[in-house]
Design brief:
By secondary structure, the protein is of the alpha+beta class. About 40% of the residues lie in helices and about 20% in strands. The protein has a 3-stranded antiparallel β-sheet with strand order 1-2-4, with no helix packed on it.
């Protein structure tokens, strides 16, 4: 069912947000609930260490019908996308599946958030020139910057590139996702998320 999102006022001529909300059937809800419970279990977390410590709130743990109700109120679809229940966008690093902390988002967005923090291959130092380079993959396209004087400056550039990619993704989805999802994407501060990776012994932090 396509529903008009009236949560925001639009000026004359501006496109109204049209979101494809859909109520899942009972089997689909049960499958999603079972998958969420599995991600909170030791066996799954042993195979996927990034899920260590993930747990379900008592509200959903003790009453799956409340989770089903949350899905009824929040589930929507974006063409060509698998839709995921995400727990990390509203509060980065969050481990709890909770109705106030979760969003329904396209899988491509969920996967992008798994790569917000700088990886070992994103920033490299040339052993001869001692200069740093940044390299980021954006959907199969490489974005790079070279000749950077310090690691911290390279990390600034990494964060700026990733922030730009996220803003582009968010704007492309603006008319197809609820306002709270769009705003959560736009308000994500990638430099703050990467603050722990800056080097304290460099002057540029």
């Amino acid at each position: 069912m396509v529903r008009v999102d009236m949560s925001q006022k639009y000026s004359q001529g501006e496109q109204i947000k049209m979101i494809n909300f859909r109520k899942l059937n009972k089997d689909e809800k049960q499958s999603r609930y079972s998958n969420m419970r599995a991600r909170c279990g030791k066996e799954y977390q042993d195979r996927n260490p990034r899920y260590y410590g993930t747990f379900m709130c008592d509200i959903w743990e003790n009453n799956k019908e409340l989770y089903y109700k949350w899905l009824d109120e929040n589930f929507y679809e974006v063409n060509g996308e698998q839709m995921d229940v995400d727990k990390d966008i509203l509060r980065y690093g969050n481990k709890q599946y909770h109705p106030d902390l979760c969003l329904i988002v396209p899988h491509s967005i969920n996967a992008f958030y798994e790569t917000l923090e700088v990886g070992k291959t994103n920033i490299k130092q040339n052993p001869v020139t001692r200069k740093y380079s940044v390299k980021i993959n954006d959907g199969g396209k490489w974005i790079s910057s070279t000749g950077i004087d310090t690691y911290n400056r390279a990390l600034d550039i990494y964060c700026d590139i990733k922030q730009g990619i996220l803003i582009t993704k968010a704007k492309a989805l603006k008319d197809y996702v609820p306002e709270k999802v769009f705003m959560a994407l736009m308000n994500t501060d990638i430099r703050a998320i990467n603050s722990k990776h800056y080097l304290a012994n460099e002057s540029e932090v």
